[in-house]
Amino acid sequence: MRINNVPIVFSTTAIDKGFALLPNVAAFASSIGRPLRIIHVLGQRYRSYAERQMASALEALPSDNGLVYELLKVEKKRHRPMLDEIASTTGGLLAVLPTRHNFINRLLAMMSDYEKFMIEGPLPLLALPRNGALPASIGRVLFPLDLSPRSDDPLDQAAEFAKSVGAELHLLHVFGDDRLLPSEMDTQARMAARSPRELYQIDKDHIQALADRARAHDVNVITATAEGRAHTVILSYCNAEKIDLVIMATHGPRSSEDIWQGTTTARVIKHATIPVIAMRS
Questions:
Q1: Which helix H or strand E contains 163, and what residues bound it?
Q2: 140: Cβ contacts below 8 Å, ≥ 6 apart
Q3: Which of 99, 172, 178, 183 reaches 20 to 30 Å from 269, CA-CA?
Q4: Half-sphere exposure of 7 toward its Cβ, with a 13 Å CA cutoff?
Q5: Contact at 8 Å (CB) between 114 and 266?
Q6: What secondary structure letter does DSSP report for 113?
Q7: What pLDDT, on a 0 to 100 scale, did the predictor assign at position 128?
Q8: How far is CA 53 from the centre of its chain?
Q9: CA distance 196 to 193
Q10: Tens digit of pLDDT for each residue in 127-173?
């Protein structure tokens, strides 16, 4: 999945709740120099009204901010095939306003829409914050390190993204209960460690190596570590360090808690007040 040199994709029926965020998404796309592809999903009901809504919204978009946009109209049954086609050609970041299920709904549906899309969708996700507000510029990008080999490519892409917008890249690793699967660990080195201090040094060396990898993309890198539950620490770090955007690699559920409560990425998206890019690794 690519997040660099791809358009922002905004899908809407023009009468849904998220439609009001079109100006915000357009301004964000312009601020980071990305074209915007608007997919108007056409339904059978209120079709003429939705067409008028879309036309008015497009007329209201500013024409002096360098925004380049394209409107694509598609019947509802052709929506997913169009996303697949975009993924296989230009790629894109799909901007969505995630739904927030209450506990009862989660018991029935198991996962929210954005979680299903992170696992099954063809495009990386640009999850909008609850209030729909997007930063006018990006000065600080956070990429949480889980030390999984599968996150190496997302790290490279996060570094390129930060470079493209002239932002600092913050790398945060959280020591806590959120563990990698055995297949994702350097088990040989860990089994050879003779003390908790040596285990800690293995992780510190790994973090340093990843920071050097990110700096190779000619971006300013800041590293940090903390203890606690990953999603809680990530959200606290965002507030404390005034992070503008989070980029996260998502691997899907790793435990029963991930299934019932959501993965770390899903929980960050649920509570974040800034946009989060989730890319499947």
A1: helix 152-165
A2: 167, 168, 170, 241, 242, 243, 244, 245
A3: 183
A4: 19
A5: yes
A6: H
A7: 94
A8: 28
A9: 8
A10: 999 888 899 999 999 999 988 888 899 999 999 999 999 999 999 99
